[in-house]
Each structure stands twice: as structure tokens, then as C-alpha cells.
Amino acid sequence: MNTDDEPRVTITAIAREAGVSVPTVSRVLNGRSDVAPGTRERVEELLRSHGYRRRGSRTVRRAELVDLVFNDLDSPWAVEIIRGVEDVGHAAGVGTVVSAIHSESTSTRKWLQNLRSRASDGVIVVTSHLAPPVHAQLRRLNVPVVVVDPATGVPGTDVPAIGATNWAGGLAATEHLLELGHRRIGFVAGPTHLLCSRARLDGYRAALEAAGVPLDDRLVQPGDFYHASGFTAGSTLLDLDDPPTAIFAASDQMAFGVYEAVRRRGLRVADDVSVVGFDDLPEARWASPPLTTVRQPLVEMGRLAARTVLRLAQGEETESPRVELATELVVRDSSARPAGR
Amino acid sequence: MNTDDEPRVTITAIAREAGVSVPTVSRVLNGRSDVAPGTRERVEELLRSHGYRRRGSRTVRRAELVDLVFNDLDSPWAVEIIRGVEDVGHAAGVGTVVSAIHSESTSTRKWLQNLRSRASDGVIVVTSHLAPPVHAQLRRLNVPVVVVDPATGVPGTDVPAIGATNWAGGLAATEHLLELGHRRIGFVAGPTHLLCSRARLDGYRAALEAAGVPLDDRLVQPGDFYHASGFTAGSTLLDLDDPPTAIFAASDQMAFGVYEAVRRRGLRVADDVSVVGFDDLPEARWASPPLTTVRQPLVEMGRLAARTVLRLAQGEETESPRVELATELVVRDSSARPAGR
DNA sequence: TTGTATGCGTTATCAC
DNA sequence: GTGATAACGCATACAA
């Protein structure tokens, strides 16, 4: 008489167990209004514990909203990603909700609450490291998550991640400077806890080693991707007894900070010190001089992330594709042969 | 027996006339699910034609989403506004939906459709000139609209608008250059169809007139706010027989284009040609040299716009405040006394 | 009371 | 038929 191990978990069964009607369970599944918070929770819990899966390719409610979450909206970086996501979302008739959680738990809680009340169809997290409980929450709500530019190795489980070939980019930039004839090449690093920072640094090191150039720890200065740190690090490098003839900054913004450090010393970018950045933000092309940099396909990364969440929202089970889109060295006017050669 | 002119329009009456139950009308009013599209339209039409007003200060559904609409997301400009709106929205537990409609009617239609299906609580339009029928639609849907940086004089009716004191900013920048001793001052204009462009140009002219400096049409060059046009206009100005000793660009991005034009001629910004911009984007502080510019409180404009829509969404009838927030001249290193004085 | 909002079941319907 | 969704009304809760 025990029928606990029936193979099919149907909403009829859930409804009976929860003591509600079938349509009510259906409403919970589709995140619609007209369900009491308590009932909704009870049903969600049962759905989860019974491991309910949708039958066939039934009409999954058309996606209406995807969330795009940044830590901060303080960089031109962010707009590029937004453009990519908005572009795909717009075409699919889906709204893009942009948020900044500032790495605060209260802020995150507020966002999560809002996300829930408006029934978001998917979340794209940029660089941020959402706390595991937040991931768990989203899982419970059946909201798919995609990470752009993963901050850490494994966000927890099988979350799809979209990044760029940071190591290859660091390598290419450094090789470019080596080919120009530079031997003392400074490096301005990004935050060390970020995966992309470490990959860029390793690419820099790998290029130097391959060229047989000895590593000098003083040539590697810390930074945080923002302008000010580039200025500070650049100043430190230029004030060394044996200053570098070229500086590779792990972000365009830091490269512009280096520009300012160079200028303040009465030196000229390219003529006296070569500078290479990373990102290829729009202003790189319009800086004076135009910045040689490693192009990161930010818009394309946003597009791919959007396509991926929307696909997941449709119920298509993507097998967590950890994609890395190619970076590309863009040579402009800020890099030249070292002076006096 | 004729009771047509009963003073109170109640949803019971609407329900009877539409041939549906009272709860159904209530659902339409609150933008909830479980109403057939046809029914919803019929009821909306009746509500509108009978001029239905909510009784008392009944629980207006808490706002969940506001829309922020740009023409294009291709400028650092946009992030600043987004930051302001997101900040206020986030604090109020409201999501910010960012869209770019690219001035296309099909794109706008798609956005409007999505906006409707997810029941947006308010719209903030940036610079864009939404077509009158779109405004009419939003009115029908009872969605409040606020305009930031109004593109044109009157968006149609009594829509609240939040701008900046563009004329005063243009005046201040020009006066600053005059005080430094410049007499030939070039101007790189923005798109002439935009209100803010014309105000900045008029401010420039007013300052010159007040100082008794004759206007020279050749010193005013057209632009479109983007880098490239600044470069072109700057080049034209510097190639004049009697080139200006200072150039005031109506946007920071164009000012950077001017930087490049100056550099390409082997000249130096500030030492040879003073340059002043408009906006005070984050990169203005970090340009080489740091740019003297007119600060526009973009984040604050976004914040105010968000507060205003949310207030309107709550039913508080703001009497269309056409606010202009103050601009402020920020003197940095790109402006100096003319050479040889 | 009267007006309005919410939660949930009933009935019809649709896809397989 | 069976699983699931869509549209609407009933009963109720609650505010003025």
C-alpha cells in the first residue's frame, strides 16, 4: 500500500499534501499573485523536497525580467556589460533590472526581497561573490543564476560562468612590450582576491619567464582597478632607482592613473614610458595618447550571459558552461620602443 | 429615474457595466494576473471613460519597479544617472529597469509592451523625446512619467522635468576663460535640437557679450556630444588663420576630442590652448591634464527623478515641478592664462 | 454599512 | 485520459 516511491511527482499530489487546490500549486510554480505568503512557502517547500520537475516542454511562463547585479556602479566597465544584457533582453521583450549591492548583506537582503516580490526570471551576477545562502535562496525560488567575470574559482556549485581569457591577455600585453625591446616592465596589479587579477599577473610573469627576463618583485605594485591606485603605483614605479621603461596596468583606469604619474614627472607617455592597459573601455581610444590595451569583449560577455539565463529560465538545462571569451591586444599610441635604442 | 449623474463612480458600477464581478475589476485596477486581455481592456476603457478615482488614501500597491529609459547607453553619462536612480530605488525596495530605445518606434513598442506586462510603477525618461502616443499610452496605464534633462521645451503636457542650469554653466565656463585673459574662445556645440545644447551656447554668447568681446561665427563649431565630433571641431578651430587660445566644449567627451586635436598638432593643453568641458564625468578628474569643467549633478538628478516618480506612483499629485539643479564650475589644470601674457 | 483587496476553489480549456 | 494553466466568481477580510 505504500506508494511513496511513485516515480512521478505531480502537482496534484503536492496540492493534496499541502491541502490546497491544484491551481494554487500551479500559481506558486509560476510565481503569480493571489497566493498567501504562508501557503506559497508551504507549497514551495513541498515542491523542493519532492524534487518536482516540470512535465515535458510545457508553456513555461514567458520571461519578463532578468536581474543584473553589480557590486558597485562606479566604473565605465559596468555600462558595457549593461549594454550587452539590455540588448539581448530588449530583443527578447525582457526587462533588465540593474542593481548595486555594495557587498552589504542588508542591501543584498533588500534586493533579494524585491527580486522575489516581482518574480525575477533570472539573475546575472557580475564579479560579485554572492554569499552561499543567497545562492541557496535563489535556488529555492527556482531562479537561474549566471556569473560574469567570476570573482572566485567556484561560486559554490554548478553555476554557469562567463569570463575572458585574462591569462592570455596578460601574456599578450607583456609579450608586446618585450617585442618592442623593453626589459624592465612594471606591473600594476588588481585586487588579489579576484581571479581575473591573478590570471593577468600570471600571464605577465609567464611572458617574462619565457623571454628569460628575471622577475623583480619591486616592479609589481598593488592596485584596486581604480584610477587613484594606478597613480600611486605608477608613481612608486617611476621613483625606483632603476625605473621601468614600460608599465602594464591590469585595468584601463589604472593605466590612466599611470598616465598622470608620468605627466607629473614631466615625462611623456610612449616617448619616455610605454603604458599598456586592460579592458579597452571606450575612453582608451580617446585618451591622449590613445591607449594600447587588452580588449575584453564586455558587451559580448553581457550578451552571452543574457542569452544563457534566458535559456535557463526557459527550462533548457545548460550544462554549466564555463566559457572564456577571447581577449585581444589592441595596439595604439601609448606603447613604443624604449627611449635611446 | 435617471441616475446617470451619480457623483460616485464605484467599481461595482463598472463591474456591472462590464459584465464581470467586482474582484475582476479590482484586479485590473491593481495590475494583477488572472484577467483575460480582452476583459482587461474593456474594464480599463470603462474606468477611463467614467473617470474612476480611488476612494480615500487606500492601500496603493507598493511600488516594485521603475523604468529608466535612455536613447542609447553609449556614454559614461548614463551610468551616473543610473547610479542615482538605483540608489533611491534600492533604498525604497524598488527595482530599476534600464532600457535603451535607440529612438526606434519598433524598439519603443517592444519596451512599452514589456513595461505593461510587468506592471511598471513609473517611468523616468532621459533626454529622449517619447512620441506623444507613447505618453498617451502611459497615461492610460496610469503610469507616472518624469523627464530628466528635457530634450525639448514642453514634452507635451504637465510632465515633471528635472534638468540642470545649463545656461548658467555655459556662462560660468566662459567667464572663467575671460577672466584668465582669453579673448578668442572657441565653442564646440552639442546637437542643436537639444534644449541643453542651446542653453549652453546662449550662456557662452551672453558671457562674451557682457565682456564686450565680439562674436565670431567661425569660433562656434557643431558637435554631437561624442568624442569624434570634439576632435573634428577642435581641429577646425585650431586650423583657423587666427585660432582661439581657449576652447569650451559643451561636453566632457568632446573636450577630450579637443585634447587629442591639440596633441596631434604638437601643442599642449593649458600651456598652449586652454580647454573647458561640461558634465564633470569621473574621467575629467583623471584626464591628463585634469579637465576644468562644469559640473552637472547627474547622480543627484537621478535621485531626484526617482524620488519624484515614486511619489507620483504613491498617488501624491506633485504639481509638475520643473526643477533645474545647479551646475558648478570645477577648475582643474586644463585652463590657464593665454600664452605670452 | 459600503467600497475595495486578497486568497483560493470551480470550471473551462489546452497539450500531449 | 492526464497534467497543467487560464479566467473568473465566491467568501472573506478590512478600511472608511
Automatic annotation (TrEMBL), chains A, B:
Recorded superkingdom: Bacteria
SUPFAM superfamilies: lambda repressor-like DNA-binding domains, Periplasmic binding protein-like I
Zinc found in the keyword field: no
Segments crossing the lipid bilayer: none
Annotated protein name in UniProt: Transcriptional regulator, LacI family
Entry GO MF terms: DNA-binding transcription factor activity; transcription cis-regulatory region binding
Pfam families with a match to the protein in the record: LacI, Peripla_BP_3
InterPro entries xref list: HTH_LacI, LacI/GalR-like_sensor, Lambda_DNA-bd_dom_sf, Peripla_BP_I
Keywords from the named record: DNA-binding, Transcription, Transcription regulation
Protein's organism: Micromonospora chaiyaphumensis
PROSITE patterns the UniProt entry points to: HTH_LACI_2 (PS50932)
Domain HTH lacI-type: 9-59
Keyword hit for Transcription regulation: yes
